[in-house]
């Protein structure tokens, strides 16, 4: 645990939160429940950006890529916290989160894909992750509608899913029930910083004072005025296009999340089947494109041809808040009283319990868990200082 100076942490600070997504609502819930006066300011409707666009996979194991070993520890810690977090939040909010623990199956669409899948499997095994190699036939016994061309698969029983839109509804309700105040359609124009100390925010030309400010505006977190460069979280939007099909709820064509080359398919209890997602460096371009939709449908059809018969329910675009190293940015900044929770990239839903608990604990008493310490904004400033040193 790291202790911050006590004068930054009044007993029950007044808190202004910029951003009403999973981070803003969740941290706001914990702070309001602890007796803080908390206001969440959301430029649109609460939880309707990345939190809403996500697929809700809790896939700490199969989503791990080479170079993400440090992040894996954080992801596994949050994944382990999910069942208790879900139970608590459901009890507080009265909202069913649709948590499902059937596991995830990663499949090779063709014989050629099997070698790449084998490499990834060996990598995951080398990290000690609980994954199991299956033949195509074994995979089809688990999911009978998989295409005959599926030649191999990896089963990950520890990777689960939750309905992220239910999570948003639950956090919204828990926040309000705890006494938090939510201001939707309210754009924060600036964060007020004086002499290295956060003093509040500016909305509609008015100053609103606060003891602490939490910047949790997802992909928009870099663009809030008033924050000195050293405290601006370096995040950018990473576009994802997503399609939802409708299965018959009583006769779903799959029971567990399935990953294939360039696609994941996430079945919900109500029969929704989510196909995601493209990964595009297009800034805040919110267009659904023929190419994006075509690639998702083609990749999904290759491994699950029965999708051809399913009606399209909805299509959308979301913006992952992605940092320079794809890891989240959590905790204090060089500005006293200004705290950040953003940069979750592909793992916002997975990291929700850990983010909510660690950041709210820091804001209440100045303690930061060891797991979270390496993920502070300071790591980017250290990079910049080292680079400047090398250039001298
Ligand atoms: N975690 C899945 C995605 O970002 O598309």
| N/C terminus separation | 36 Å
Radius of gyration: 21 Å
> Are there runs of 5+ residues with pLDDT below 50, and where?
1-6
Helical proportion? 25-40%
Structural domain tally: 2
How many strands appear in the DSSP assignment?
Answer: 21
CATH architecture of the largest domain: 3-Layer(bba) Sandwich
Shape: elongated
Could you spell the SSE succession in H and E letters? EEHEHEHEHEHEEHEEEEEEEEEHEEEHEH
Give the neighbour order of strands across the main sheet: 6-7-5-15-16-17-14-18
Average pLDDT reading: 94
Q: What compounds sit in this structure?
A: glycine
The CATH topology assignment of the largest domain is FAD/NAD(P)-binding domain
Query: What name goes with the CATH superfamily of the largest domain?
Result: FAD/NAD(P)-binding domain
Structural class: alpha+beta
Instruction: Work out the strand percent.
Output: 25-35%
Largest sheet: 8 strands, mixed
- Provide a count of the helices: 9
Which properties best describe this structure?
392 residues, alpha+beta, FAD/NAD(P)-binding domain, D-Amino Acid Oxidase, Chain A, domain 2, 2 domains, eight-stranded mixed sheet, elongated, disordered N terminus, binds glycine
How are the SSEs ordered, and which strands pair?
Blueprint: E1 2-3, E2 14-18, H1 22-33, E3 37-41, H2 50-53, E4 57-58, H3 69-93, E5 104-108, H4 111-126, E6 132-135, H5 136-142, E7 152-156, E8 160-161, H6 164-177, E9 181-183, E10 188-194, E11 197-203, E12 206-209, E13 212-215, E14 235-246, E15 257-260, E16 263-267, E17 272-276, H7 290-303, E18 312-323, E19 329-332, E20 338-342, H8 352-365, E21 367-368, H9 378-391
The structure holds glycine.
The site of glycine has 7 residues, from loops.
